[in-house]
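Chain A, query sequence.
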Amino acid sequence: LAFAIAAPGTVRALVLDGAPDLDPGATHGDIPLAHYRTVFQTQGIEAFRLLWQQHPHMQLRTRDSATRALLHAMLQRYDGRDLLDVSCDATPATTRMALESIRAPALVLNGELDLDSRSAAADYLCRQLPVCERALIINAGHLANLDNPADYAAAIQDFFTRHLPG
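Chain A, predicted structure.
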């Protein structure tokens, strides 16, 4: 989003999955970053990984063993360095205020079984963007691309076909 605001002529379309919560009135706090940062700093990456895999965002709806193994491998590769960057904790007000300047068509998607706060964040974001579509991926949680990859890919393909012909 920040890039689309800063360089509008270079962005032809946006696909936003796991949309950031930019609503200044929202009070969800789904991800306790300060707590996770403290666990990482004091107990190490393995303690953080154990904690993070329990979070609702990490709960797959699919029972496919290969997908579950993939998620496990992804978590094992995650080094946690971004947790140390406190500047990522808050979205600048300028980003929230400039959303209406983004003229590129946007697709905001998430799983139908994602947390209500994630759906609310996606709805808010889509209301702020001038050209926006919403897609709910059925039978999917926060990791919609893993839970239902076929419908996820189809939603993106349809969006690109309509907005980026050729």
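The beta strands are 14-17, 106-111, 132-137. The mean pLDDT is 90.
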